[in-house]
Amino acid sequence: MSLRTKIALGVIAATAILAVTLAVLGLQAKEELDKADLRRKEKSQEALEELNKRTQAQFDEFNEQQHKRAIKSIERLVLAQLDPILATPKSDIAQRLSEDLNGMDETGIVTLESDGTLNFKAEKPEGSRAGLTKEEENVAKHVFETRQHEFLGDVLFVPYNPDNDKNLKYLLRLKLDIPPIKRPDPVKIPPLEEPQAADLGPLVVAAFTTLALAMLAVFVLLMFALRKFVLAPLGTVLEDSKRIVKGADGLTVEGFRADKSNDLETLVAAFNAMVRELNAYKTDLEGKVKSATRTIEKQQQSLVIAQRLAATGTLAAGLAHEVNNPLSGMLNAARRLKKKEGLDERARDYIELIEEGLGRIENLMKQILDFSRRRDMKPERFSPENAFRRALPLVKHRLEKKQLRLEEDIHKDLPQVYGNAEEIGQVLMNLLINAADASPEATAVRVTIKPSDSGGAILAVEDSGEGVPAEIRERIFDPFFTTKEPGKGTGLGLAIAHTIVDNHGGSLRIEDGKTLKGARFVLELPRADLHESRRTKEIV
């Protein structure tokens, strides 16, 4: 039996004894820790529930008090501001109410006719056909009777009597914008009292004692093995070497006889070989670690965006489903009212406004559902250039309107990708629209399509604008986040595009422009055969 085998057997035996002992002690310790953890969880849960109840009650009370204070403050400010307006003569009051600087969102004059009916004329906004609701008419009549101002929500009715007539004939209806006070963010839960940990002192002492005894046993065994199987043979080698040096013939070094295994010689040779392999492996490993680090840094931002979009998409889908049912009923009701005979022109106009507003809400809900839903595509192989060609006619008028030059850098022999060409075309159309909006007139938009290093395809759209600041790049794919002016974007375009690309197994990121020095959106799709195989595994 070789030296290597003998030492290995001794170490294995000592390690086995140590492992079995520590396993028994570990199981006992785990049982105690599990019990302590259960007690800690129960106590923490009770404390958390109690704290949540108290916090919620405090939030509700604080919210109500702050809202009442805000309304009272606004009332005092508004009433103080009304003094110059109430002093305005009847001939000039309409002009005064229509001014933008009076701070009111809507203004109008309510007139009490001789027959007791109320006539309302809106002065702002211009062209408004607003009328008094039934509840507003009741409030207005009460103000005529009491001659005291009165609020109905954010609508203020105030007496207007510039001629100091005995009978009050006019009221001013002023609509204010008193937003609700935002609910405060939940407070941070303070650290809970730590439960008393299990007493593991005896177990620790026993473990260390057993470990010390086991290590002592290993040491004794190794010393015995070292003395008997290493030092003794080396002593023999030394004695025989000295006798050979003195000229004795017919002697051989016992430790290196041909009929025995040369353990020491083998050990040195194996160690030298191991060092060489380790040096080579270390050099190769350092290169792989650097490459992996660069890859992780590039993909980290995409991973964070994907997780945020997944959470937001789940929330958006739930909200959209909850809104769609009552929305459909309201749309149907509005359409039936519109078809009803005998409606006057004003009522029909109001119904059309309601129908138009509900329709816009319905379209927005559809966009939210499209963003959050992983739709079943009809996948097929297609060329990325064909997807670009299908999207280009839909945005060509935008480019021509701003006199933008389209630069194309499309490589030949592009690999095919796998998925839905129409959806990828939708992504490219969105990127081209954003590039056209961001680029100044008479500049350029650049499209690059080339093979990727992984065998797929890269589609990049670059604009001539000012780029996207670094501080908002992490939010650029968030739903409802947009850098466009109000009314020019919903903030769903890039979020939907990111979802479509993710469903295709690709990635969408933003970079600094290389040629036009603006923003550069890079869409990378895997090669067709790779994505097909992944989809096959998911189906199986």
Write a structural description.
- With 540 residues, the protein is of the alpha+beta class.
- The chain has 4 domains: 3-67 and 201-245; 88-175, Beta-Lactamase (2-Layer Sandwich); 262-373, Methane Monooxygenase Hydroxylase, Chain G, domain 1; 380-539, Histidine kinase-like ATPase, C-terminal domain (Heat Shock Protein 90), CATH 3.30.565.10.
- Helices cover 58% and strands 13% of the residues.
- Strands 2-1-5-4-3 form a 5-stranded antiparallel beta sheet. Strands 7-9-10-12-11 form a 5-stranded mixed beta sheet.
- Strand 3 and strand 4 form a beta hairpin.
- The longest helix is centred in the N-terminal third of the chain and has 84 residues, at 3-86.
